[in-house]
Amino acid sequence: MVIKVRDAMTRGVDTIDEMRNGSEAARAMRRKRRGCLVVVAKGKPVGIVTERDLVRKILAGGKDPSKTKVLTIMSRPLITIDVEAPLRDAAQKMVQNKIRRLPVTEGGRLVGMLTTTDLAKELSEEGLWKEFEKAIIRAGEYGGYPYA
Question: Of the CATH numbers 3.10.580.10, 3.40.50.150, 3.30.450.20, 1.10.10.10, which one belongs to the domain with range 5-141?
Answer without folding.
Answer: 3.10.580.10
